[in-house]
Amino acid sequence: MGISGTEVAKEASAIVLMDDNFASIAKAISWGRAVNDAAKKFLQFQFTINVTAGLLTVISALVGGTDASVFSVVQLLWINLIMDTFAALALGTDFPTPDLLKRKPEPRGVAVPNVTMWKMILGQSIYQLAVIFTFHYAGESIFQYHTEQQQRQLQTMTFNIYVWMQFFNQIDSRRIDNRFNILEGILQNPWFMFVQTVTLAGQVIIIFLGGEAFQVAPLTGAQWGWSLMFGVITIPVGMVVRLIPDWLLSAASEMFALPWKSFTTRRTEPATATRSLGPVMRLFNRCLGPRKQTEGEDAIQTTQQSAGATDEGHGKSGDPAEQQLDLDGIVEALRYGTAEVNVGIQLHPDTRKDDLVLVDLRQMGIPPSQNPALWQFMGSQL
User: Fold this and answer.
1) Which of 14, 69, 261, 372 has the fewest CB atoms below 10 angstroms from its CB?
2) Which pTM was predicted?
3) What are phi and psi of 210, to 5 degrees?
4) Does the residue 288 lie in any domain?
5) For residue 274, is it within any domain?
6) pLDDT in tens, 268-304
C-alpha cells in the first residue's frame, strides 16, 4: 500500500498501490493490455502500407522508369504523413475495453506480430497490390482512356483509390483478432475521429485543388464512385481474411520453411563435425591427412561408443530404473578428455571410479548424515 504501507514493505514489494485501492490493479492491467494492443494495431497498419507502397513504387519505377512511377514524390509525402503521424495518433490512443480483461495473458517471449496479424497484412497487401497494378497498367484499356487529360485522371484515380484504401484499412486495423466488431469503442477515441476527418478533408482538397503541386486532375462523379467503392471493399476483405483459420497459415508457413531448414541443416552438419576435431587436429588433417588410431585410442573410442549406445538405449527404454547413464564408461572416456557424450560434467584424469562425488549414496543403505566416509570426505574439503 502506497499510503498506509511501511517503507520496508514498499521496497520489498513488486507492485505499490499509490491510492491503496485494489481496483487499481485491474485498471493497470487493462491499460497495459491496451497499450500493447495499440502497438500491434499500428504495426499491422504500418506493415501493410509499407509493403504495398514500397512494392508499387519500386516495381513501377523498374518497369517504366522513374517518370512512370505509380505515385509522384509529393503524393508519396502525403501517403507517408497518413502512414506515420496520423496512424500513430489514431491507433495509439484507443481506450481499454471490458473485453481486454477476459483474455488470457500472453507468454513473455511471444512475438509481437502474431499469426492473426500476418494473415491480415498479407490479405490486405494482396488486395491493394492487385487493384492498383490493374488500374495502373490496364486502366487505359478498361476505361478506354486515350487523351492526355483522361490519362492524368486515371493516374489521379489510382492515387485516390490507394488513399481511400488506407482510410478504411485504418478502421479495419482497430481489430487485431478474428472478431468482426471493428467499430468497438470508436466513439470513445476523439483522436481517431479527428485523424479520420483530417484525412478525408485533406484528400478531397488535394484532388480538387491540388493541381500541379500534387500532379492531380479533378475527377468526375463516376471516378469518385470507383475510388470510394474500392476503398470500402477493404472492410469486406478484412472480414474474409478473419474467416481463414490461423492454423492454416501456420501450417503453410511451416511447410515452406521445411526445405530451408533441411538445406541449412545439410550445410551446417559437416562444419560441425569438422569443428569437433579442434583447430590443431583440423590442421593435421589438412596437411597430413587423417591419422591412424593407436590401440589405446581404439579402446577409448570403443568405450565412448558403448557409453553412447547405453545412453541411447536407456533413452528409448520406458523403465525409469533403466534410464541411467553408464557412469563407469563415461568416467573412462572423460578421463582422456575425448568423450562425445554430453553429460555436463568435467573430471580430472586422476579421478577414481569410487570417488564419493560419483557414487550413488542411496546404494550404501545408510543416511548421508550417518555415513563416516562422507563425513571424512567433507572434513578433508574444509
Assistant:
1) 14
2) 0.63
3) -65, -45
4) no
5) no
6) 555 444 444 444 444 445 444 544 444 444 544 544 4
